[in-house]
Amino acid sequence: MSALLIREASESDVLLILEFIRKIAEYERLSHAVVASEETLRKSLFGDRPAAEVLLAHWDGKPAGYAVFFHNFSTFLGRAGIYLEDIFVEPELRGKGIGKALLARVAKIAKDRECGRLEWSVLDWNKPSIDFYLSLGAKPMDEWTIFRMTEDAIAKLAS
Amino acid sequence: MSALLIREASESDVLLILEFIRKIAEYERLSHAVVASEETLRKSLFGDRPAAEVLLAHWDGKPAGYAVFFHNFSTFLGRAGIYLEDIFVEPELRGKGIGKALLARVAKIAKDRECGRLEWSVLDWNKPSIDFYLSLGAKPMDEWTIFRMTEDAIAKLAS
């Protein structure tokens, strides 16, 4: 019998988390954008003020996937929500409900913490994921576009 | 001589913050979505664990605009960024550089805190804002779509 285990990550999982980050980046064709290291992740995720939380899924004792999330805030609701930064399942372990179980765990955390929303972003060509999210009752916010400033623009505007 | 002052909001500014939230919602044609109250804002912004930070702009001593932001996290960068939830300037005070000054203050905070990114979302029809953001070197992440689950879908998935 196959067994799925989902647990909170700890500092000893940093290398595994970095491997998952590199795998999701590869899937998203964004490997060139990964500059995270074990050191930066240890500091940002397991230091004095953790910037995000990580869940790990294991299938038959083998690392199977992960989810990374942090709290955001809605002024319209006047309360916090959860933003899901990453969710990933190993390609050879898909179709077993691992991704849904990870997302359900994040939803449970959102409910327990009285969050009004659970949000994340998806690449427009990622149809398998989009279909999956729609099936769970998530709605695409098609009328919104994310804008991003990277360090150069930040430094220029800040000065 | 006109004077612009930008300062951090404190608990005594809750009503003013709520008024700005209602004004930005009206501008975004989303007034129906505002359920925040003075009580929820006091608790979420000025309680034990503030969910976001607020900057207030005053022009000649009069409330002129605000910005609300919180920290997000990039797994690819392995470090925190800043997400700008709201930025708003009173319509009759636009064109004086108040919005740019607010955004520059947020950029300064991002730089001081060694954030790798500054991000926010814009409604696709809001061309004046989009042109303004592009002029500052921000890039639209056109290939991404935000998905959102509200409380009903969260509760269903969590159970």
Walk me through what this model shows:
The structure is a homodimer of 159-residue chains. The first copy, chain A, has one domain (4-120): 3-Layer(aba) Sandwich (Aminopeptidase). Chain A is an alpha+beta fold and 159 residues long. A five-stranded mixed β-sheet of chain A has the order 1-2-3-4-5, sandwiched between helices. The model of chain A has no long low-confidence stretch (mean pLDDT 96). Chain A has five helices and seven strands; from the N terminus they run βααβββαβαββα. Strand 7 (144-150) of chain A pairs antiparallel with strand 5 (117-123) of chain B.
Brief write-up:
Chain A has helices spanning about 15-25, 40-45, 100-110, 125-135, 150-159, and strands at about 5-10, 55-60, 60-75, 80-90, 115-125, 140, 145-150. By secondary structure, the first copy, chain A, is an alpha+beta fold.
- Work out the strand percent of chain A: 25-35%
The residue fraction in helices of chain A comes out at 25-40%
Low-pLDDT residue intervals, each spanning 5 or more residues of chain A:
none
Q: Any idea what the CATH architecture of chain A is?
A: 3-Layer(aba) Sandwich
Report the end-to-end length of chain A measured between terminal Cα atoms: 60 Å
Largest interface: A-B, 72 and 72 residues
**Largest sheet strand order of chain A:** 1-2-3-4-5
In this structure, how is the largest beta sheet of chain A organized? 5 strands, mixed
Shape of chain A: globular
CATH class descriptor name of chain A: Alpha Beta
Compute the average pLDDT of chain A.
96
Summed up, the helix count of chain A is 5
Structural class of chain A: alpha+beta
Query: Could you state the CATH homologous superfamily of chain A?
Result: Gcn5-related N-acetyltransferase (GNAT)
Order of helices and strands of chain A: EHHEEEHEHEEH
Number of domains of chain A: 1
Query: What do we call the CATH topology of chain A?
Result: Aminopeptidase
Q: Specify Rg of chain A, calculated over alpha carbons.
A: 17 Å
